Amino acid sequence: MYWLIGSLIIIVMMGVLAVADNVILPTDLSLLDMIDPSNLSLALTIFATILLASAQFNIPSIDSHSADNNTSNNASRHTKLPFRIIRYLVLALLATVLVIGSALQALVTHQQAETTEIIAPIRVQAFVRIEGLSDSVYDAATDSGYRQVAVITNITPLVAKLTPQELATKTSDYLDANKNSLSTNSNEVHIRVSEHRILLNAYPKKSANDSQFAALNDLQPGDEIFMSLALAPLATSEQAVNNPTGFDSYRWLRGRHIDGVANILAVSPTLVNSSEISNEISAEKYSKQSLDSDSYFQRFRTRIDQGRWRLRQHFYQDWSAQTTAEQQVKAVTLSLLTGDRSLINRDTKDLYQLAGISHLLAISGTHVLFLAIVLAGIVVLLFDRNYSAIYRRIPRWQVRWWVMIGAAFIYALFTGFDVPAARTAWMLLAIGFVRLTLLPISTMRVLLALAILMAWRDPYVLWQAGYWLSFIAVALLLKYDDKSYEHQTTATTSLYDDKPCAHINSALSSRVWQMVKRVFKLQFWLFLTLLPVTLLLFGKVSLWGLFINLFAIGLFGWVIVPLNLLAGLCYLLVPSIADILWVIISTIVGHLHDLMSWLTSLPALSDAWLYTPVNIAILSMALLSALPWLLPRGLLSRWLTLPPLTLLMMTVYANQQSFVTMPTLYILPTGDSYITAALLQYPTVNENSTNWLFLADHRPTSTRTMPSSLTADNLSENLKQQLGSLSVDKLESIVVQSSSDALTDTLIPDDKNTANTKNSELLPMTVAQLNSRLSISQYWQAGRSDRWSEFQQAYKIIRQSENTPTISAQRCEQGKTWRSANDELSVQAITGWTKIGDTSVWDCTIALDTNLPIRVLRYNAADPLNSLPANSPVSPQAQIITNQLTGKQSESFQSRLILNADTHQRVWQMWSLLCSAESNNDDMLFENTRWLGHSASQITGDVIGRQGIDEVITYDNNPLEAALSLNN
Fold first, then answer.
1. pLDDT tens digit string along 178-192?
2. How many CA within 13 A on the CB side of residue 252?
3. What is the pLDDT of residues 485-528, one digit of tens each?
């Protein structure tokens, strides 16, 4: 009953959050005024306690010893039957109240979050209060941006651009106004309205003054400052919309109770809380909040976060003077101590992910429990020697328990009170309370109750991956430990019963072997059981994590983490000793990084990712398959695993095959609105499918835009993950539709500015990296590619990958055509004139001519199986055609899909002069012509009309200016 009710509560809360997030609900519901989430969670806890107490109350069975009492026993049974019925009805009523109350708690929490959410982009001037530590630091040398959670108030729309000096003047005026208000009326304090919790962003390539934003790293938790910001809603922010990985950043931000994102435009050089008047204002403000217990807790949290910030600054000393390897060793050491990952770069995170040990970078229950045990042992040892009389009033285990609770909660707060650390602290408190009250409750039930209580306290915790991985991993460990303990006890008894003195050597070796087998079985058990959950949350999993974790967990758990915690304690007392210990830890971590880099560079280990889309249905079948193994032995036959396991394999195989049952073009997110990628999957008779990858840079040459912050490493890694999730391991061709000046040594441009505005090496370098990971038959490159061979050879030398196959670059120019063996698919370049010495006419637009219509989908990185259509019709007739395409795919007629890649208007001017007449004749062959390009395209309405385009789709989902005239 416990597991049924608990699972139902969590499922209902998740369902309510999912429905409420996808359905527009009115925000003026009376529920917000009638129900307080904190009071509701307290009421649910009380009802749950009553339910547990009622379930424990059981009417004792009748124990008869003679046949003479049969009559009275039957009468007693009939008398107690109504009481049993009433008891069951009360239990059912309480369970129903808990489920309905849980749903109501999730709904009210969501509605409260909706009332403070940023709903439209706007530029504002705001009063900013820093909360906690930043997610990353600002460093122009490493292209690292500043990301910080903050609370903004005193929001004013920004009419004109503000300078830092003007913001400093605003700060001075604010302090004077508050000082005057205190001097004239001691009971009046400045009241702030319209408060929002946002994520601040500042990136080097998006800022005009690096020195101004470099000072952001000096902001401490609790600092208050004026800024000018560009606010944006979560749903339309770059983190949520253009997300190239499977990580659901929207839910991650909502889970942190963030109302919107903001790009920093300008920062005041003066802090509000840096002067004496600010201290006076703060003292007056806190005196007014003396009755609010949350203010004391918030101030305590701020003090702890400031301690974490000072420790980060200690590690950040002389950062630029160190090598990248030294920096990352210190960054990992800091992360293992406080959970602060702000100094870890992308390469180190990718290294740990590929090795399958990225979970070791987070503060887990092991860290908290180890520190609590050590401190409790020290305190008990001191009491044993000096204050043993205290045990007359308090048992020794209670002294140890109270010390462990205090240490666990303080350290959990010091590490940010994330779910794994908080779960460990609350588990220590709950298990000690169960022992203190002698309640007959198992550890697994305590774990389930804690999971439900955390969900009641904050329903958005259900959207955090750490919540699921933490609780599921602990439950599996407890379940495995129960089984292995019985087996170990039996094995140990039989081992020492048979002449232990004569066979001590063989017994010792046998025990070591048994321990090794147990560790491997435990790791294999955890890997298999967490595999579906990991794939559901992250979209991929490293297969080599199964083996690397065998030694990495022991190294971190028994060597690195204990030394690091000891160094942290020494830092509070004798910092010089802590520095010595951190040098030792850095040496160990540095050698570990070198070993992992060497292992992951091996050809057999470099491609160890498993990409399999997982949804709730697949996860449910995996749970049913594991259920007979999770339940006590004999309760269910383990042969019952075969039906759901067979259905699971058939479902996974069917999902893999569903990607290629009809022609599909996936628009892949890249993380840059101007850099586009599209994958064409066209099923053929002889092969599974023909796969084409199209890459382009749509930055217009006539408009000044920010350069791309993408790197070839990030882009190729993201593309590899997306292709893997779509079961693509072979490409017929990669087509780079934008010309690259880095590949050209015969350039005589008419406009020199044209050649200087392109990030020309990004896409060719991405092709070179993909060529080392995938099988690629052809490579089409727009423009001249005279230096491609030298470029490819230099890449092999730098990457030390001489075994990488060489691929030649073919010019993607007007007239170049490829046809499939059965003439079902034709790929034709309709623009691109490389014989002309002007880069503005080199961009290559592709026409895909097919017998079957191609559906265009926007790839959903979080759930590839549910990628949505990308339709942007230019007329009602086009909408009808689009519905026909998506609703009926079996019709056999000619259709054309044009992939546009122009960056200058001269491309279509040249096409109008040379190819428009030929195109008019070709258009007679197509019953439907669609156009896919960027909203910054230089195409004109006249060209759209000549090509007979019926539907316009844009990569960035913004309207095309030239197509708007077609609506009139």
1. 666 545 444 433 334
2. 16
3. 455 544 444 444 545 555 566 666 777 777 777 777 777 777 77
Structure-block tokens of residue 910: 């040249």
User: How far is Cα of residue 653 from the mean position of the Cα atoms in its chain?
Assistant: 26
C-alpha–C-alpha distance, residues 816 and 828, integer Å: 6
The pairing of strands 855-858 and 928-933 is unpaired
* Residue 573 token pair: 């007392």
Q: Which amino acid belongs to residue 853?
A: P
862, two tokens: 């979080």
- Return the pLDDT at 481: 60
Q: Are 885 and 922 in contact (CB under 8 A)?
A: no
Cα dist from 920 to 846, 849, 927, 929, 952, whole Å? 17, 15, 13, 12, 18
- Edge-to-edge strands, sheet with 928-933: 817-819, 825-829, 846-850, 895-899, 928-933, 951-954
**pTM (predicted TM-score):** 0.78
Neighbours of 590 (CB within 10 A): 17
Sorted by sequence, the CB contacts under 8 Å of residue 587 that are 6+ apart come out as none
d(CA 177, CA 185): 12
Helices (H) and strands (E) in the chain, counts: 33, 21
Q: What is d(CA 569, CA 382) in angstroms, rounded to the nearest whole number? A: 17
Helix (H) or strand (E) holding 827: strand 825-829
CA-to-CA separations, 956 to 370, 668, 858, 878, in angstroms, rounded: 50, 11, 10, 20
Name the strand (E) or helix (H) holding 668: strand 664-668
CA distance 620 to 613: 14
Three-class DSSP category at 232: strand
Question: In this structure, what token pair is assigned to residue 116?
Answer: 């403070």
Task: Catalogue the E-assigned strands of 789-927.
Answer: 810-812, 817-819, 825-829, 846-850, 855-858, 868-869, 895-899
Q: Which candidate, 150, 185, 179, places its Cα nearest to that of 282?
A: 179
Please name which of 359, 333, 360, 356 lies closest in space to residue 344, comparing C-alpha atoms.
333
Q: Are 816 and 828 in contact (CB under 8 A)?
A: yes
d(CA 938, CA 951): 17
